[in-house]
Every structure is written in structure tokens, then in C-alpha cells.
Amino acid sequence: MSDRAEEGATVFLHDLADAGALPRLTEVNRPFYAAAARGELLLPWCTQCAAFFFYPRSLCPRCLSNEVDWRLSNGYGHVVVAVVVHRPPWNDLSRPCPYVVVIVELEDGPRLLSTVENIPIEEVHAGLLVRAVFERVSDEQGLVRFLPR
Amino acid sequence: MQTGVFGKKPSEPIATIVASAELDPAKNGRSFLELHVAAVAAALADAGIAPADVDGLVCVGDMMGAGVEHTFLSEEIQDYFLFPNLRMQLGVQLGGASHLAMLEVAARAIQDGTCARILCVSAGTFPPIRDSGRSLMQMVCHPDYELPFAPSIPTIYGLMGQAWLDATGLGRDALAEAVTAQQAWATSHPVALGRAAGPLPVAEVLSARPIAGPFAYYDCSIPCEGGGAFVLSAPQAAGDFPHRPVHIVGTGEAHTHGFVLSLRDLSTTAAVDAGCVAFARAGRTPADMDFCQLYDAFSSNPLMLLEELGFAERGKAVELYREGRTWPGGDLPVNTNGGLLRFGHAGTASGICGLLEAHAQMTGRARGIQLERADLALVHAYGSMLCSHVTVILEAG
């Protein structure tokens, strides 16, 4: 895992993903994961509503328009709620436990379920300001995680 | 006939539960079909009827990886008993709310005259949690946007439970109150799986090994095998059966999300709306209820549900526990068999448990502590990750 980085620089983390729990790449999710592999948080944008939505879908869940575009998010947000996981969901989970699963609300609006890394677990709580960082799983696939900022 | 806003007068029953049977919660490794067969046979015996007397069969489809051979479960059961006179057969699937959704569908088929006697059944086994954890989580998580971050089921419930604690300013000790009270019911129940642990003081619940977020070991339900079945008939025909009739007088449903990342307010569930509809249909209020059976996969759930269903102000349900009102001898008994937390959580069959306990109480046949007053009951269950909510109001005839 990387050290806490300076604000602004793209940060990559390593060795957290579980190989048995990675998404299957599809036409709908590929842009999101490819961007994350490059270190970018790319979110689906409805051109009719002029607003982000999450997660990526083939149509906008608000207006059903299929004029879906992609826009970069600055990756800043805050923790809505945090849970420390003491017992892993499956026996052979590769990452160390405990870890912190959170719901993050981005300044751009959408919410993501993810983890906050590189912070003592007891310091993660609702309201904590975070920024997106990336775990490159392959050239086509990155996971979006968060660090405190 | 003058009808109310929901197509019936508030006091008018929709259909009547005339018989029921429950399997003991256990860890015996009985097969999925074997459990269903035992439940069906016991319910038929309780009703005093034969397969030929049944004209509706409803079951709950497997949700816990019982195997592809059970894809057509209702047909499997039909074939085993060779029910000769079915006019309706159906498998229902709505997570832990399936069983009350099954009751709703069956009650409507009684109400509209499609069927006269419907057998509803559900049985199952909670699989070994962490051995089958990856496939278990594939069932309940978004595969692309949740699963990669390795949440457990307690993690997802923990996100919602913690959001409720954050919103109300309460701590984990509030959750422990529910466990302690339900253990008081379970210790008096001859087959509750948690019985042997004896009384569980709040301090012991709090100091158990941590699982996820606000939940430690005793805040999570006990996995087991079990289930049961019940028989519905038209209210006018309830006198044909040996037990006191238990009428379904109101049901309500509401739904907010499929995956937790889509739930905007994590501290409130759709129980608010499901409860309002059920009470309106029944022409009743929370104050009328003699007791409640509230689906409780985790300790936060009965507290949140008591508030959302109108039994307490937000953040105040814990006082119902601290004052002993939800305990044996209290004026608002909750989860009188110990609930999923202390009686047992039978996987696919989970949500039938509260309904069967309500029926046992209302017919004077509770195996644990029999309530002196059990004429009006609320049963509530939710499906999957607190997504789909069904409330049922029962009134003894």
C-alpha cells in the first residue's frame, strides 16, 4: 500500500483486491473500470438531466434516456457511514482484516460503496473527508478506493 | 356492500389462517426437500385435511444455494404429495419477506374465490457462512460495485444499523438491549437454539467478539435449518377447522432499493410505508396490538422497526426494552420465541418463523411463554438487504 499522498497527485494502492470477487467487464461498465486503471474517476452522465448517476447503466434511471455520456469527477467526497469489518465475508479473503467499508458521497453527487485505506480503523467515521485513489488490477480494470484528505 | 379505500371494510378479514406447523430449528443436515415434506405433512395434520382437500399450493423458492435440482420447488412438492385438486400453484421469492408476500398472494386468491384452502410452505437451511461466503455475497451484493470491496452481510446491515445509531445518537448498548430481551424469551422456549446460553446481560452481548460495525457475535442471528407451513381458508369456512381462527385483516408492502449503495437514507427503511398501509387496511393502530413478531436478522432491526412501524418515536424504541415492556410479562411482547437472533435463522425459511410463532400464540399453543392476551398481532418481515418490506396484521376470531 502506498503512503498518504499529497493532495492532487494520483495515488495507486496495491494488493487489496480479491481475485475471486472482481467484476466481469461488460460494455456498460468497461469505461468506468478502464478509467480507474488509468487513475481517473469517470462517472456516467445523463445528457438529458445534465447530471451524474451511479452506478453505470445503459440508461439514466431518472429519465430513461439512453444518451449516457461519461465525465470525470474530482474524486472528493465525504464518508456517509463507515463499518469496520472484523470477520471477513469468506475464509480465503486475501486482504488483511480488519478493514473499513464505507458509503462515500462525492461532491459531484453520486454515492459509492468502497473502502477507506491507510488510516487507523477507529478514525473512520461519518463526515470524514476523503479523496478517490485507485487500485490497478489490470490494464483494463481499476478499483476506486478512498484515502482521508 | 360498501367497501373502504382498499376494497374492503377495515374490520373485514381478507382470509384466515386455520392451521400451522413449525419444524424445530436444528443443525441435522436434513435435505431441502425432506424439510419441506415434513412441514407440509405436519400442517395438513394440524388442519385435519388430506392432500385432496388442498386447492392451492404456494412455496418460497430457494435463496441460499440449495441446488439447481430445486429450481422448480413447487412442482417437486406437488409431485411428492400428488395434490390432485390444485387450482393455483406458485413459488414466491422476496428474500426474508417472501413468506409474508406468500401469505398476501394466497390471501387474495382466497378473497377472490380462486381457492378455498391454500397450503403455504417454506423450509431451508442457512449454509455455512464463510465457507460459502463468496457465493452468498454474490446473491446479495451488486456484483460490480459492491462485491469487489468484500462486504459481509453483517457489514451491509451494519452500514444501515450504524447510520441509524449515528442519526439517533445511540450507542451499541441500545442494540444489546434487544438481544438481552429476546434471550429472555428464548431461555423459556424448549427448542430455541440460543436457549442453552442462559441469560445474556447487556455487558456480555457488548463484550462478545466483534463481527462488523456495531455488531458482535450475539447481535447476529443463529444459522440453522427449519421452517414450517400454514393453511389459509376463507373466513366463513374457518369453523371447519379445530383451532381458533386467526384472520388476516391488513397487509402492506413497500420497497426502497435492491442494493445498499442505492439507498439514499440509510437510517430509515420502507417499513414506515408498509406499516401505514397495513394499519389502514386493518383499521387498527400500533396501540391496538397485543404483540409483535419483527424480522431480526441483526439486533438493530427490531429497534428500528418498532420506531418505523409507529410503536415508538425515533431513537426511543430502546426505552421499550429498558422499561421491560418488550420482555416476558411486558405489555408489548416482541419476538416471543427469541426471534431469528435467539430461536434460529433457517435461511430460505427465515421469514415464516415470526408468522408461525404469532399463529401459535393466537391459538394458545405457544411452546415457550404463552401470552395471556394474544388477540391482535403485527408481523413484519423484510427481504434481502432491508429492501422489501411486508407488514401483516392478524386478528383472532
Topology readout:
The complex is a heterodimer of chains A (149) and B (397).
Chain A: E1 12-13, H1 30-38, E2 42-46, E3 51-52, E4 68-72, E5 76-85, E6 99-106, E7 111-116, E8 129-138, E9 141-148
Parallel strand pairs in A: 1-8
Antiparallel strand pairs in A: 2-3, 2-4, 5-6, 5-8, 6-7, 8-9
Chain B: E1 15-26, H1 32-47, E2 56-60, H2 73-81, E3 88-92, H3 98-111, E4 117-125, H4 133-140, H5 153-168, H6 172-186, H7 202-207, E5 210-212, E6 215-216, E7 225-233, E8 246-255, H8 271-282, E9 291-294, H9 300-308, H10 317-322, H11 339-342, H12 352-362, E10 376-383, E11 388-396
Parallel strand pairs in B: 2-3, 2-4, 9-10
Antiparallel strand pairs in B: 1-7, 1-8, 4-7, 5-6, 8-11, 10-11
Provide keyphrases for this structure.
heterodimer; A: 149 residues; mainly beta; OB fold (Dihydrolipoamide Acetyltransferase, E2P); six-stranded mixed sheet; three-stranded antiparallel sheet; 1 helix; 9 strands; globular; disordered N terminus; B: 397 residues; alpha/beta; Peroxisomal Thiolase, Chain A, domain 1; two-stranded antiparallel sheet
